[in-house]
Specification:
By secondary structure, the protein is mainly α. The chain has helices at about 45-60, 70-75, 80, 85-105, 115-125, 130-150, 180-185, 190-200, 205-210, 245-250, 275-290, 305-315, 320-325, 330-360; strands spanning about 10-15, 20-25, 35-40, 220-225, 235-240. The protein has 3 domains: about 10-60, no CATH class; about 70-150; about 180-355, hpI Integrase, Chain A. About 50% of the residues lie in helices and about 5% in strands. It is globular, with a radius of gyration of 26 Å.
């Protein structure tokens, strides 16, 4: 029997090094999971999938328009949801599913009652043993309720202003040193080190790093619109091509790559890296080399952005505004990095130089004799 094609059916694969691909079939992008498969080729449409698709479709039609589930469905069809980066939508979809499972059946009107903040706090605290997870849940709920508030579907955003539980996220003072990159190279393949060095010399986020193409490499600068927004805006990163970066790019052009591959970074098979594939490779090498900050925290690929920022501050003496443009960051974040690392470093260096100069001054007694 020939099954009818389903418009909008969304099938995605999750690939991790050394493990079989995991396939997930969603009724539509952002919709419910209706099938899963481990290994093998991309799932084909069968009667079971068709039946589950129609069941999912029917379930949406049964949602009461005054329910929170109805609002959530509208949110997932909104331009604000579509504007999120693909990776963000994937991660947030899991949390939106949790929100719908907990509160989908309640009337939307209940969210206009300020007393709901207590319920939200209780929900956050239930996940307190995993503080980052708890904070992420509040972030998504806050975004959802703010979308609803701006459309007059709720009167107040009860998730706004809720403090975070996780306080280990400030990493402005953490950077990668040249010695650590050398240690990392002892445990990683050349294609992994290529990516880490490029991150340290460009400050690009992981998603932008693996997606960077040669078409975005100019004679004097790399110009790329960031995939992830900063302060609600997708900023354009403009990275100057000087010194070490120019040398590295020339080297990367010589790497073997499959026909038609235009990404700057390629894996050992000459194919573009996936974000997860590259990130996991860096993590394995870092763990093997046990590269940590002085306070014991393991260093992250994301810390390469701070490395690049400090290079621009200390070697090129760029202003915060210029660095923000290069990194596609908000300027106030650059200021925090400068205050945490560079300004302190500069004070120490100046103090050391003054001390050294004082040591070099001869001591003279009252008679004018040098001691």
């Amino acid at each position: 029997m020939t099954l009818p094609a389903i418009k909008g059916l969304y099938i995605t694969g999750n690939r991790k090094p050394g493990k079989p691909v995991r396939w997930y079939v969603y009724a539509w992008r952002g919709g419910p999971l209706i099938a899963a498969k481990v290994g093998g080729a991309k799932p084909r449409l069968d009667a079971d999938i068709v039946e589950k698709y129609h069941a999912a479709l029917q379930s949406t039609r049964k949602v009461r328009p005054e329910s929170f589930a109805s609002l959530i469905a509208d949110y997932r069809r909104s331009p604000e949801w579509s504007a999120l980066a693909t990776s963000t939508r994937r991660n947030w979809s899991i949390i939106v599913d949790r929100i719908e499972a907990k509160w989908g059946s309640v009337p939307t009107a209940i969210w206009s009652d300020p007393r709901m903040v207590r319920k939200v706090i209780d929900w956050r605290d239930a996940a307190a043993t995993q503080p980052r997870k708890a904070d992420n849940q509040i972030t998504v709920l806050r975004h959802l309720l703010e979308w609803a508030r701006l459309r007059a579907r709720v009167n107040v955003n009860v998730a706004a202003g809720i403090p975070k539980l996780y306080h280990g996220g400030e990493r402005a003072e953490i950077i990668w040193t040249e010695d650590e990159l050398t240690r990392l190279a002892d445990h990683a393949s050349a294609d992994v080190i290529d990516g880490v060095r490029l991150a340290c010399l460009t400050g690009l986020r992981r998603a932008d790093l693996v997606a960077l193409t040669w078409a975005e490499i100019g004679e004097r600068a790399i110009v790329r619109k960031a995939l992830k927004s900063s302060k609600g805006k997708r900023r354009t990163a403009t990275v100057p091509i000087v010194g070490e970066l120019r040398t590295l790019l020339a080297m990367l052009r010589t790497r073997p790559r499959s026909a038609g591959v235009e990404t700057v970074l390629v894996n050992s098979h000459g194919q573009p890296w996936t974000g997860d594939g590259f990130g996991n490779s860096v993590i394995r090498a870092r763990n093997a080399a046990d590269i940590r900050h002085e306070d014991g925290r393991l260093k992250h690929l994301h810390d390469c952005r701070g490395t690049f920022a400090t290079k621009l501050m200390t070697e090129l003496e760029w202003t915060d505004e210029k660095i923000a443009a290069a990194l596609a960051w908000a300027p106030d974040r650059v200021g925090r990095i400068r205050s945490v690392y560079v300004d302190v470093q500069r004070v120490v260096v100046q103090w050391t130089e003054r001390s050294a100069a004082a040591d070099c001054q001869p001591t003279v007694n009252r008679r004018g004799e040098t001691l």
